[in-house]
């Protein structure tokens, strides 16, 4: 396969980029690969909303910037924050013109919500399924573009660079270049070579590295792992955000149901097992403190009482308003026997969002030429050590737009296209000689359980040097075993995803070991204070 533009992932970042490129270049071909169905993404599960300065009488760009910087705990790139906050409103207006519907009040104005870490009401939302609504609009628009082809059930195995042409490529190699990808087509069960002039990674997060996460099963960190193998730069992987309030269901492992932060923004109160509201003991902002603070507070309360959850009390909230704003949360809780207006909701933190990822610049460019990254897989500098609620959808749209702008420069540069033509003629096909079908799937499934267990137990909300050392030793062994399996067996999505997750686990632990302080989402009891040296960890 050959294409002008290649997009890996069909969430808000990938679809926004694809739509803009396709409309600007109607004579160019664009492929979108997604490893399941086109709508199964992290975007689909984004409940709360999208942050933007809408009411300029009460709110301002400066306030949104300041809230983001405070949440990021000293590690945000201030230029990036300013870009996202100021350009983000235009991106929101744009998707509204494309058909996205956000909730309005009785006067016809947008019903703005407030979430943890925000000083003003600035969250636009569509009930409690904001991401799903935005994705719906984008997918419908994509279908109208004849030059876009969406190929589902395709698993991207690796990025193609000079390495595949026989050259030695290291972290210090100048001008590493992306020529496309090798992809496992699950329709044919064959690995195909796909070349492209420009490639965008929009592969989402890595929550499945942990035993309990709000992320769907597809969130396995594939983009980050592929870029690391291709010798690209990865940044700040230690900052894994745990959402404070996932519905606690003892029998459920894997994807947990999220209770959006907007519930606390509308009046929900966290209580410990004795029924006492405890957040005032941890932060003056109480239940609306940033997520890192709330998650650690809940973790502390759980350890004090030896329990696996705390309570979220919504009993005093207005019933009509709750049903209008949070219908899916109400129905889901009711399905497990909880009437949220009569019973308190059992909640516990769950892995939710990766603030680090593939290091990018202000135009979404990675350290590999002709390779862009946007969305959760990218580390743009916006989130720093902790993401401010509802900034993620905003970031994805802003950097998808910026990647599109710079891609136009590349596609119109004839020398870039000539280098691609040379590479296409010389890139080898995938070779699978000497491999066989795996005889025991238990080798993969058990290793996955081990990985998720060790990451949850040793590299969770609170960490120690000893826990990180143990995690690294076990990751080394898992890596050795899975690499041997990868070299001797036929490639499968299960094996590739596990391989990627082990790589992501290693990057999280290694970054955590390098950070000799506690900052934002990284809390190490051996280094409880912040250091004076504020730095990013780049691997």
CATH architecture of the largest domain: 3-Layer(bba) Sandwich
The averaged pLDDT comes out at: 92
Provide the number of structural domains.
Answer: 3
| Helix/strand class | alpha/beta
C-alpha termini separation? 32 Å
Fraction in beta strands: 15-25%
- CATH class (first level) name of the largest domain: Alpha Beta
Shape: globular
Write the CATH homologous superfamily of the largest domain: FAD/NAD(P)-binding domain
C-alpha Rg (nearest Å): 23 Å
In total, the number of strands is: 20
Helix content: 25-40%
Low-confidence stretches: none
Characteristic key phrases:
539 residues; alpha/beta; FAD/NAD(P)-binding domain; Flavocytochrome C3, Chain A, domain 1; Methane Monooxygenase Hydroxylase, Chain G, domain 1; 3 domains; seven-stranded mixed beta sheet; four-stranded antiparallel beta sheet; globular
Structural summary, described in words:
The chain has three domains: 309 residues, FAD/NAD(P)-binding domain (3-Layer(bba) Sandwich), CATH 3.50.50; 109 residues, Succinate dehydrogenase/fumarate reductase flavoprotein, catalytic domain (Flavocytochrome C3, Chain A, domain 1, Alpha-Beta Complex), CATH 3.90.700; 83 residues, Methane Monooxygenase Hydroxylase, Chain G, domain 1 (Up-down Bundle). It is 37% helix and 16% strand. The protein contains 14 helices and 20 strands. The strands form six sheets. Strands 1, 2, 5, 6, 7, 8 and 17 form a seven-stranded mixed sheet that branches. A four-stranded antiparallel sheet has the order 11-15-14-13, with helices on one face. Strands 10-16-18 form a three-stranded mixed sheet, with helices on one face. Strand 1, helix 1 and strand 2 form a beta-alpha-beta unit. Helix 1 runs parallel beside helix 10. The radius of gyration is 23 Å and the shape is globular. The relative contact order is 0.16. The mean pLDDT is 92.
């Amino acid at each position: 396969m050959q294409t002008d533009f290649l997009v890996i992932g069909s969430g808000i970042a990938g679809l926004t980029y694809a739509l803009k490129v396709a409309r600007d270049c109607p004579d160019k071909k664009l492929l979108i690969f997604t490893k399941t169905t086109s709508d199964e993404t992290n975007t689909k599960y984004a409940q709360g909303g999208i942050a933007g300065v809408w009411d300029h009488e009460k709110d301002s760009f400066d306030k949104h910037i300041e809230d983001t910087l405070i949440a990021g705990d000293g590690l945000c790139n201030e230029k990036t924050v300013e870009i996202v906050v100021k350009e983000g409103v235009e991106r929101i207006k744009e998707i509204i013109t494309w058909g996205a519907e956000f909730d309005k009040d009785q006067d016809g104005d947008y019903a703005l919500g407030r979430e943890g870490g925000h000083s003003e009401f600035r969250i636009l939302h569509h009930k409690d399924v904001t991401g799903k609504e935005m994705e719906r609009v984008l997918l419908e628009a994509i279908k109208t573009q004849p030059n876009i082809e969406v190929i589902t059930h395709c698993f991207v195995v690796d990025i193609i660079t000079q390495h595949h042409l026989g050259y030695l490529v290291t972290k210090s190699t100048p001008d590493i270049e992306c020529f496309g990808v090798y992809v496992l087509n699950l329709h044919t069960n064959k690995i195909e070579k796909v070349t492209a002039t420009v490639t965008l990674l929009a592969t989402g997060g890595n929550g499945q590295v942990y035993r309990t996460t709000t992320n769907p099963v597809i969130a396995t960190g594939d983009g980050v792992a592929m870029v690391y193998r291709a010798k690209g730069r990865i940044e700040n992987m230690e900052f894994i955000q745990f959402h404070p309030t996932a519905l606690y269901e003892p029998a459920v492992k894997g994807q947990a149901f999220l209770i959006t932060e907007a519930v606390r923004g509308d009046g929900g109160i966290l209580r410990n097992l004795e029924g006492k509201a405890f957040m005032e003991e941890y932060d003056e902002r109480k239940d609306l403190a940033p997520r890192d603070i709330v998650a650690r507070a809940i973790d502390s309360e759980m350890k004090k009482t030896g329990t696996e959850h705390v309570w979220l009390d919504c009993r005093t909230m207005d019933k009509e308003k709750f049903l209008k704003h949070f219908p899916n949360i109400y129905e889901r809780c009711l399905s497990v026997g909880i009437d949220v207006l009569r019973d308190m909701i059992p909640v516990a933190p769950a892995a939710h969002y990766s603030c680090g990822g593939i290091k990018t610049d202000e135009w979404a460019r990675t350290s590999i030429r002709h390779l862009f990254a946007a969305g959760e897989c990218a580390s743009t500098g916006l989130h720093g050590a902790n993401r401010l609620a509802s900034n993620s959808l905003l970031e994805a749209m802003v950097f998808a737009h910026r990647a599109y702008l710079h891609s136009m420069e590349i596609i119109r540069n004839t020398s870039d296209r000539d280098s691609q033509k040379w590479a296409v003629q010389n890139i080898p096909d995938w070779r699978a000689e000497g491999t066989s079908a795996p005889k025991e799937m238990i080798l993969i499934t058990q290793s996955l359980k081990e990985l998720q267990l060790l990451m949850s137990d040793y590299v969770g909300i609170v960490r120690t040097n000893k826990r990180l050392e143990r995690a690294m030793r076990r990751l080394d062994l898992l890596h050795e075993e899975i690499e041997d399996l990868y070299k001797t067996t036929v490639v499968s999505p299960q094996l590739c995803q596990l391989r990627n997750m082990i790589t992501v686990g290693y990057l999280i632990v290694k970054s955590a070991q390098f950070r000799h302080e506690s900052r934002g989402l990284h809390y190490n009891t051996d280094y409880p204070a912040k250091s004076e040296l504020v730095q990013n960890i780049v691997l």
